[in-house]
Amino acid sequence: MASREQAPHMVARVAAVLRAVAASEPDGATTTELSKAADLARPTAHRLLTSLAEEGLVDRDAKSGRWSLGPELYLLGTAAGSRYDITDSARDVLEDLARLTGESAFLSARRGDETVCVVRQEGSFPLRSHVLYEGKRFPLGVASAGLVILSHSPASEVDSYFARRDLTAEWGDGHSEEAVRRRISLTRAAGYAVNPALLVEGSWGMGAAVFDRRGRPAWALSLTGVETRFRPDRIPELGRLLLEQAHVLTTRLKTHSVP
Questions:
Q1: pLDDT band at 84 (very low <50, low <70, confident <90, very high)
Q2: What is the pTM for the complete model shown?
Q3: Which domains are assigned to the chain?
């Protein structure tokens, strides 16, 4: 049995493995791929995956050997949905954003040091960016949703975040602490965040924060599209629409059961 000192470390490993499996959906991933994604030795990852499979939390395809999320997670998610799921409240907001702008609209939720996309609504413009999709995770400060949530967080939280995260290792010099802090300042001044093709060339994004009942930036609405759709003269209008719809959703959630 794990000691008290070992238990938190083990929980963190299990959480890392589950997040890696979730990020691999819908195709799943091999043990080797998941060990790299979770930053674990392969034998450790395999041992954890096997134990999770015994509890129904992950499942393994007998032919391909690829791991995917298990049925027990669906049941757990269903139980938690009434408390944390705001997709029903947000769906018409996303539809309005997509209709008014022609761009793809998204709702992302904060989960620790990351954002995860939970809903996508396609716009009418035929050329689209495919950087963001349901289930996709990004660290805070990366992509417009993560940038706007970090920007509206208290200064002490921002400082603590940069003390434990180095975004340049995976995302390059454009996501150095200095560069992200510059974008945080611009976001705080405008109210909305702009991602000028920092992840994929030619793919732009914009985001606005949605706040919970305690005034914390817990979600974000965002728009993504090709660069030609985010001209300098159009960005303020897109930002205004994002802020308006984010305010609508924030106000609606004040009476929602989500904490």
A1: low
A2: 0.72
A3: 6-75 (1.10.10.10), 85-253 (3.30.450.40)
